[in-house]
Amino acid sequence: MSKAAVTGVDGGVFAAVDIGASSGRVILGRISTDGGPARATLDVVHRFPNAVVQSDGGLRWDFDALFAEVLTGLAAAGKAAAERGDTITSIGIDTWAVDYGLVTKGGELTAQPYSYRDERSRAAVAGVHGKLDPARLYGTTGLQFLQFNTLYQLATEPDLDGLQALLIPDLIAFMLTGQRRTEATNASTTGLFDAVAGEWASELFGPLGLPKDLFPPLIQPGETLGTLLPGIAERTGLPQDTKVVAVGSHDTASAVAAVPAEQENFAYISSGTWSLVGLELHHPVLTEASRAANFTNERGVDGTTRYLRNVGGLWLLSECQRTWADEGYRPAIGELLDAAAALPPGGPRINPDDPAFIAPDNMPDRIRAAARNTGAVLPAEPAAVVRCILDSLAAGYARTIADAERLAGVAVGVVHIVGGGSQNGLLCQLTAEATGKPVIAGPVEATALGNVLVQARAAGVATGGLPELRRIVGAGTSLRRYEPLGLISNAARN
Question: Where would I find the Carbohydrate kinase FGGY N-terminal domain in this sequence (predicted)?
Fold first, then answer.
């Protein structure tokens, strides 16, 4: 087994812009050995909120405010690096998928980008499927059906002539460098990407009435996009020759790249606002059975396939907390989890993937209503609602992993949970119980680590493939293992 290689004691400093659907961070990452195994360390230099706003007739992202926070974070990163005598080697950007901004030929953003949580794309689904049979779409793109996938959003646009669509991380990169590209892992979430060829599925654009040049050319993780525009360099204090390097710009692609797996066949759960649950494969699964099960084949770092399904996530819990806070109830999350853990197993479960949970609203009421629809009675106490959410997520994870194993013909022996959900001990234990497999939790900052490691490899600081990069993660991360203890019966597990 080869060792991960780092080309020096101080392997460089990298800025990771990591933005999720509810918050963002700018993080400094360092790769070093200090005489021991190669490891990565992270330093969060700037945090900022991110939320949809009701504006101009729909739910939109305040991109102007978001980009201003990115610049603030890059300035803080440059200052923090300089205080240690370092210079930032490059910048990498990752965000959530599917959403985009429309940019004119002159480079102006036509409007603040819509959020996938806006309902406008729901009405466009039937029209798209009337032009392109869903089976044909899946056979080409391998993409899971979600009503907010990019192609359905684009079908609502009244006029795309003379415009280009830039996915959110590509839009940020364009504003930094002036260069227009579409990073491949995020392109694979649009519904317009060929899962086998790894290129735009150009034959789909015509039937949908989309301009062939709607998206910029593709760029792969590890390729250099460009350097900073003079005005950006001035605003951030960074050298103008600072590179912006493409990483796995879909945050899940970066997160999966940093899963500290020691074996080839593993399941992963990138647990945050959403849960992305699946397997890493070397080829897509484009069968009718896979389509019927609504699995997606998205591009991963190094041309891998992220074979996964979206499962509801901790959005349900955070929205409950927001509702309770508005009502004056603000317990610490640890208190809520302890109370939920004290409840007996076998309580009500809901379908966490129900579209009724997508938009922000009174989440506790919606969860209780969903439980009633199953014939169960869910008490109003927050602990009961929290336990219902976590039991439902764990059951959803178990079903999804079992389906992925069956459809891909792969058996896995361990489940890795990365992201914010890896800190939720109750969720991790319930997942071990529901799957009957050991769960390894961590790292929390998997997305930022994957971002930094791809940059480091592009700079020649780290070498090797994904196994070598993952050993760097494992060497620098404290992981926790949860064993299934048989607390859930087989009947309840299924």
Answer: 16-256
At how many degrees (to 10) do helices 363-373 and 315-326 cross? 120
DSSP one-letter code for 3: P
Tens digit of pLDDT for each residue in 184-194? 999 999 999 99
pLDDT tens-digit readout, 353-408:
998 898 888 999 999 999 999 999 999 999 999 999 999 999 999 999 999 999 99
Owner of token pair 């074996």: 263
Judge whether 340 lies within some domain. Answer: yes
Task: Please give the single-letter amino acid code of residue 484.
Answer: P
pLDDT of residue 11: 64
Cα 440 to its chain centre, rounded Å, is 19
Report the alpha-carbon distance of residue 454 to residue 92 in Å, rounded. 9
Q: What is the span of the domain harbouring residue 48?
A: 1-93
Q: Which two tokens stand for residue 310?
A: 């979206």
| CB contact burial 261-280 (16+ within 10 A = b; e otherwise) | beeeebbbbbbbbbbbbbbb
27: closest CA among 452, 463, 365? 452
**Structure confidence at residue 5 (pLDDT):** 41
Cite the active site residues.
251
List residues bridging with 95 in a β-sheet.
250
Whether 438 and 484 have beta carbons less than 8 Å apart is answered as yes
- Residue 115 Cα to chain centre, angstroms: 15
Are 39 and 130 part of one and the same domain?
Answer: no
Phi, psi of 305 (to 5 degrees): -110, 125
Task: Note whether 359 and 490 are same-domain residues.
Answer: yes
Indicate the number of domains in the chain. 3
Q: Against a cut of 0.85, is the pTM above it?
A: yes
Which one, of 26, 20, 121, 31, lies nearest residue 61 by Cα? 20
Q: How far apart are CA 243 and CA 251, in angstroms?
A: 20
Please state, in angstroms and rounded to a whole number, the distance separating the CA atoms of residues 187 and 200. Answer: 8
User: CATH number of the domain that 36 lies in?
Assistant: 3.30.420.40
Domain for residue 449, yes or no? Answer: no
User: DSSP secondary structure string, 88-136?
Assistant: EEEEEEEB-SS-EEEEETTS-B-SPPBPTTSGGGGGGHHHHHHHS-HHH
Are 423 and 326 within one domain? yes
Question: Token digits for 309?
Answer: 């399904």
Cβ distance 380 to 364 under 8 Å? yes
CB 374 within 8 A of CB 415: no
In whole angstroms, how large is the CA radius of gyration of the chain? 22
Q: What is the pLDDT of residues 47-81, one digit of tens each?
A: 999 989 999 999 999 999 999 999 999 999 999 99
**Pair of tokens at residue 35:** 């005489």
Q: What is the pLDDT of residues 263-322, one digit of tens each?
A: 899 999 999 888 999 999 999 999 999 999 999 999 999 999 999 998 999 999 999 999
Backbone angles phi, psi at 200, to 5 degrees: -60, 135
Coil, helix or strand for 346?
coil
Burial class (CB in 10 A: 0-12, 13-18, 19+), 362: middle
